[in-house]
Structures are given as C-alpha cells and as structure tokens.
C-alpha cells in the first residue's frame, strides 16, 4: 500500500486537472491518504482515498509519499449510457458519500479497466458548469452507447495498396509509452485502446523510444532518450491546444526545438518526414538520421498524416509489404496530392515504425471493432510508444 500525507491545505478535484474538472472542498494539511494511482493530464495528479468518505484527485506535488511510487494510469474513456437510474458514489461501494443521481439514458464515459466489486468509475458532465466529474456507478446499470463515434474508420485501395485509416481531430490524440504503465507492453489489439503504433523503439530493455513523443509537456518514454529526441528520422507533427493549431517540423533533432512541446494541452510525434507534394522527397528523406537505411526494402507500414486546414489527423496502416515510395504514393493518392516543386503547405505526413509494429485498432460506423496486425510465431508484437484516441466515442 502506498500512503501519503498532504503537506499543505489542498483543494481536491473530481478529475486530474483544474480547468476541465469540478473542484471539491479543502483537505487540511497533515491529512492521511492512500494513493491509488497517478495520472498525467494537467501536470501530475494522484487519485487518493480519504478514509471511507471519498476518493478524489490531488496534485502530486501536494503529497509526501510513503511506501513506494504510484503506477501510471493512462486514461482510456469508453462511451456508455445509464440503463437504470441510480445514485453515483465517491468510491466503489455504498459506504462512500453519494455523488448525485445519474438518470436513465445519460451518456457517460467508463474509465477502461477501472472496476471494483459492483462499481465502475465513470466520467460525467456537470450540467451547470459543463465541467467533468469522475464518480463510481454500479456497472450492471450501465448499457452500451450506440451514438456516433468521434472517429471515422476508412479503408480503400490507392495505387494498388490497401490503406486502413482512422480520421479524428488532433485534440483527440494521446501519446504514451506502454512500458511506463503498470500493465506493461502489449500488442494494440490487447491494450483496450483505439489508434496505431507510434515511433521506433529499441527491442531490448528498457525498450528505449527512438523518436520524439511528448504529451502535455512531458516526454512519455523511459530509457536514455525517453521520447525527447529523434534518432530515427528528423520530422515531427505537433498539436498546440492553446492556439488550436497543427505544425510540421522537418529538422526536429529534439523536443527542445519545438517551442510548445513543454506546455500542457499539446503533443508532438516524431518520425520520418515524407515531404508530401515535393518531387525531391527522396533526397530529403535520406538526409534524415537513418534515412538511407529505411528508404529501401519492403515492409508493413504506418504513418501519421495531419491537415492544418481542418486540424484532422489520419492514422494509417497497410498490412501489405510495400516500399516507402509506394506507401507514400498511396497516401498522396488518398489525400489528392501530386508531386511538384514545393511541399504541400497544409498536409504533411510522418512515416512511423513498421514491420510487425504496424498495428491499428478502430471502430467502424456500425460499432464493429477493426483490428490490423501481423503475427510472428503466433503472436503480435508488443508495442512501446503508441498514438491512441483519448475518447473512443
């Protein structure tokens, strides 16, 4: 058991942040808590139990820990609806304080893998403030949500190559490293998340991430590089939530060259820049770190495409073994781009890790799960860094 003591008077919240989540009351300095897990959203937050009255979130820097360091939980929200009206609670039993009635038909988001006894942890929207609140609700009283999904699953053949595509808004992207979580590395289809594999990583312990991977101002990985530098490729795509804008970078050696990478409400993914629309792309590609090694040969492929005009991001996988040139050509055909003297100013793409790492998981318009992965020895590769959707629906 990991315990802690509050070092100062602390406002507790009903979620891991101050801007998106409702605040509760004050906890006095010296309050003893049990620390259940930590989350990285607006900084580092601990989910704690305060006696048998409530569970809540407090800033990590407000707690003096004892007995270890809490494991990281990466939020995976899955849409549900309330099937039977009942009271929610501030913890997973009737002994915890009530947190309001959830009416039949209310849309909620279940926090994947967070069930205890008869209760599941859900995120609801407060009707008065529009802010979120995380509470516990009897999971047998939750039903399937059949409303629209917030991503499109698209598949088609372009230049004789079958592409599997997730289209979503840039604000719906989350980057993280499974190596840093309690559950550890898994193939994407066993992870519970929707998205694709991310950048390259060292297959030996500690599975060091070899590309920039920043989320909410933090590098997501472990090891020598830890997601702060590009050692394979020099490209990056970044989302700045403060300005609601996407950016492309062609010579990003490290996250230090990307001004907003250190701020909350942002993400940056690194990889090989593909110079869409530029007929001189091959010369540019081989000038990137390891470019001459990766431009040749055939493999399964993964890419991230970003459109500045719409702020949409496209997560793309093919389970055909093809060259980089052929894969890039299929992407350009799908996006309606042809090569000329200049790179396309609004749409660009990164080549991400491929081969057995190329994996995708999505939902189609009928709610059916679509999974793309390849196996070796009867098993899919366990992934380190992945690019997934914050919200399934």
Secondary-structure map with pairings?
Layout: E1 3-6, E2 10-13, E3 23-27, E4 32-41, E5 43-50, E6 54-59, E7 63-66, E8 77-82, E9 86-89, E10 98-102, E11 107-116, E12 119-125, E13 132-138, E14 142-144, E15 152-158, E16 161-169, E17 173-177, E18 195-197, E19 213-215, E20 218-219, E21 235-240, E22 245-249, E23 266-273, H1 281-286, H2 291-294, E24 299-307, E25 312-322, H3 324-335, E26 347-352, E27 360-363, E28 369-372, E29 375-376, E30 379-380, E31 385-389
Antiparallel strand pairs: 1-4, 1-7, 2-3, 4-5, 5-6, 8-11, 8-14, 9-10, 11-12, 12-13, 15-16, 16-25, 17-31, 18-27, 18-31, 19-20, 19-23, 21-22, 21-23, 23-26, 24-25, 24-26, 27-28, 29-30
Keywords:
393 residues, mainly beta, ten-stranded antiparallel beta sheet, five-stranded antiparallel beta sheet, 3 helices, 31 strands, 6% helix
Could you characterize what this model shows?
With 393 residues, the protein is mainly β. It is 6% helix and 44% strand. It is built from three helices and 31 strands. Strands 15, 16, 19, 20, 21, 22, 23, 24, 25 and 26 form a ten-stranded antiparallel beta sheet that branches. A hairpin with a 5-residue loop joins β27 (360-363) and β28 (369-372). The longest helix is centred in the last third of the chain and has 12 residues, at 324-335. It is globular. The mean pLDDT is 92.
